[in-house]
UniProtKB/TrEMBL annotation:
Organism per entry: Ruegeria profundi
Taxonomic superkingdom: Bacteria
Domain Xylose isomerase-like TIM barrel span(s) in chain numbering: 21-250
UniProt keyword list: Isomerase, Pyruvate
List of catalytic residues: 137 (proton donor/acceptor), 234 (proton donor/acceptor)
Pfam families, per database record: AP_endonuc_2
Organismal lineage: Bacteria, Pseudomonadati, Pseudomonadota, Alphaproteobacteria, Rhodobacterales
Name of the protein this chain belongs to: Hydroxypyruvate isomerase
InterPro entries attached to this UniProt entry: HyI-like (IPR026040), Sugar_Epim/Isomerase (IPR050417), Xyl_isomerase-like_sf (IPR036237), Xyl_isomerase-like_TIM-brl (IPR013022)
Record-stated family: Belongs to the hyi family.
SUPFAM superfamilies named among the record's database cross-references: Xylose isomerase-like
């Protein structure tokens, strides 16, 4: 079975943020991810990680997203200064939190100029922080209309042009299914360049087992690919308590 991590921005939201770490550890998770840990000082999140023996897999850049601001500036021509100052801020958090990965969000944009800008900005971030591993993640246009990185082919093209060893692909079974209609086919095609995976059923983004993706088959394929990264549970539980939604881990 793959190594599962818990996304604490979507799981355990029935609990206050700092209590989610203990709940995840009690459920057996050894690693977590937090999309936007910027509302609290980094040391608060660090304390919660240490107290519960948890590794931090991933945070997102830039802050914030769910509060209604733009989901990134990386592909927006003219916003380079904003992009760079956001990355510097995220790296200050990363100094304290030591996330394995930072997911850089493209923002809303379209066309060849946006792609050129995205490539340049990713190269800048990769060279500015050469020991940090970065990811990009295609998001589906129903959940994120107008988001630049909305396709895995496009992500592969961008990564080829960026050509930096510390910028790679983040796979999300929910988005992959919503974009391309088949999460498994996208895993099979792009797995050699995937350094981080997230899972959620489609189309309703609830726990694996429901929906149109065959997760038993997907987990077998992840193992067969020799993938050694984390597979993060990033879904909205259909149950009141997240702990009641974890049956899929025993598949
Ligand atoms: O899939 C998602 O929505 C996330 O992984 C994300 O980073 C968007 O904020
Ligand atoms: Mg995701």
């Amino acid at each position: 079975m793959p190594k599962f991590a818990a996304n604490l921005s979507l799981l355990y939201t029935e609990l206050p943020y700092l209590e989610r770490f203990q709940a995840a550890a009690e459920a057996g998770f050894k690693a977590v991810e937090v999309l936007f840990p910027y509302e609290l000082a980094a040391k608060e999140t660090r304390r919660a990680l240490l107290a519960n023996g948890l590794e931090l897999v991933l945070i997102n850049a830039p802050p914030p997203n769910y509060t209604g601001a733009e989901p990134g500036y990386a592909a927006i021509p003219g916003a380079e200064a904003r992009f760079q100052s956001d990355i510097r801020r995220v790296l200050r958090y990363a100094d304290v939190l030591q996330p394995k990965l930072i997911h850089i969000m493209s923002g809303y944009a379209t066309g060849p100029e946006a792609q050129d800008c995205f490539v340049r900005n990713l190269q800048w971030a990769a060279d500015f922080a050469p020991t940090q591993q970065f990811t990009i993640e295609p998001l589906n246009p129903i959940s994120q209309p107008g988001y630049f990185l909305s396709d895995y082919e496009l992500a592969a093209q961008v990564l080829d042009r960026v050509s930096r060893p510390n910028v790679s692909l983040q796979y999300d079974s929910f988005h992959a299914h919503m974009i391309h209609g088949d999460a498994q086919a996208i895993w099979d095609r792009f797995c050699p360049r995937i350094v981080h995976a997230q899972i959620g059923a489609a189309p309703n983004r609830s726990e694996p087992r429901s929906g149109e993706t065959n997760f038993e088959r997907l987990f077998r394929a992840i193992d067969a690919a020799g993938y050694s990264g984390w597979v993060s549970a990033e879904y909205t539980p259909s149950t009141k308590r997240t702990s009641d939604s974890l049956g899929w881990m025993q598949m």
